Fold this protein.
Amino acid sequence: MDEYAIGVLTNIGLFSFVALSAWLLLVAGELSFGQQAFFGVGAYAAGIGTAMLGWPLPLAALAAMALGAAAAALVGLPTLRLRGLYFTMATLAAAEMLRILFELFHWQIALGDERIGPDGTQGFRGIRWMLERGIEPLDFLAMVWILLIGVMVIFLRVENSRLGATLRALGHDPELARSAGIDVDRLKLGVVAAGGALAALGGALFAHHNTYIEPRNFDIMLGVHSLAYGLIGGLGTAFGPLLGVVLDIGVLEATRSLQGYRMIVFGGLVAVLLVFRPRGLLDERVVHWIRSRA
Amino acid sequence: MIDFLQNTLDGLALGSSYALLALGFTLIFGVLRRANLAYGPAIMLGCYCATWAYLKTGIGLLFLALIAVAGSTLAGVYVERLCFAPHRKGAAAAAMVASFALWMQFEELATLALPRHLYAFPALYAGGPLSLGRLTLRVESLVMLVAAILVCAALWRILYRSRFGTAVRAVIDSPAAAELSGISVSAVSLQVFALASAIGGLAGFLIVSGNEQVTPMLGMWSTLKGMLAMMLGGLGSLPGAIAGGVALGLREAHSQWYLGPQLRDFIAYLLLFVLLAVRPPWMNTRSAY
């Protein structure tokens, strides 16, 4: 495989994590504009772990996930009872606060003859754990996709379990779910924390793929894109957000002949697609049809 | 003290531009119960049309204002037909994401037409600022203030003194009941979208001619500020939108002076987050879509 294809496939994998985290909340009935912040928390935490504290990547990634879950729970707790646009705006406000904190975050240590660490708006460069360990792009690609497949297996198992049905009940009508004896607040908090951890894992990998991160990577554009991936791909199955990422990054890269008109074509296609399929390509009905055939 | 007064004056001027943006946003939200993410980008596209016309022909300000308003209105109508008309029943998420897709479209259109990151826009007023004792006030700010007041008055007349306004308020109260009493909800939505985008276009024109420059960032900026001001003033209330806009402007001017731009934005979001979490009585958190 050439370097270009590896890069595209790696990016598809990386952004699938944050798309899955936005999709998870979408299935639970909430629109989050804030998943990019937890992606950022993961990127910064893992970068600090490997580049500044000398931790191995797996440990740094685990710490990043814990921190992402904690940050998401912290945002989730005061907003549990908010619905609809109010919840969406609260997640956006929290995410923008975190992005500004990244801009104000200065912590550098001297390593050899250079200073390494987050430097406010100048970003955080030198996250070179992969290069120092001699890990090739192809190995990294395999790592990303193995992790993603692991996450997908968990998602698909949950899908067919009692928990999956409970989640969909919550997404369908929280009042009804509450009256059916579901502990809505606890479930929602769990969903939010799991989404935060998942986005943070993606962020940790992103930081090590790019070796350089800056606060601008984690602005609202990434958040709305992640949400759009889930909705384009479909709410019926966890393959939905993956399909969304493949369509966006894949189609964008494949149609470089359309350079300059790409977003005009793609934006219009998405809007028209949603007219006919408001719950995405792989919505519940399609998934049910496929299952009944299999 | 003089600093405080000067900041308050600056904040009022800034706040009146936010109030105009929030008015348009709130009109759309009130009628459709949907957030239109492409609201700001439609305004940006209108302003880009005006900039393009200015660069090609060098026509006067009045024509530029008309082009900005017309461009924004057309873009707004396009957004309504493609993103909101098909999703009137349910599918709030789809409407929002579709409007985001059109945002991307508008941004690319604008950068295709005018590829540089920044373009100069003719100034609204060439002279220096007015001085009131030791205070100064830019003429542009004064125009913005007056425009905001005029638009509010006109809007009040339209909404409370015309047949169309009665229909709009009926749809805001209850779309189903309005439909039953013979009002075409589809037509009202389209007209409200056009009206809101025209107000946004006017606000956009005043903002870019006040700043004497235009960038593609205007789109995201207008959506965010309009949405923030709308949320601060409660949701879907027109007097609330004005109050929210002015409050946002005042708070920004003061915190910018004392704390700098990054903390200024941080406090804006913190305030919004706390308000949402605490839910004071004027924010009816049950009624969002």
Q: What stands out?
A: The interface with chain A takes residues 35, 37, 82-83, 86-87, 90-98, 100-105, 107-109, 112, 220, 224, 227, 231, 235, 262-263, 265-266, 269-270, 272-273, 276-277, 285-286, 288-289 of chain B (CB under 8 Å). Residues 4 and 254 of chain B are 8 Å apart (CA to CA). The longest strand of chain B covers residues 130-132.
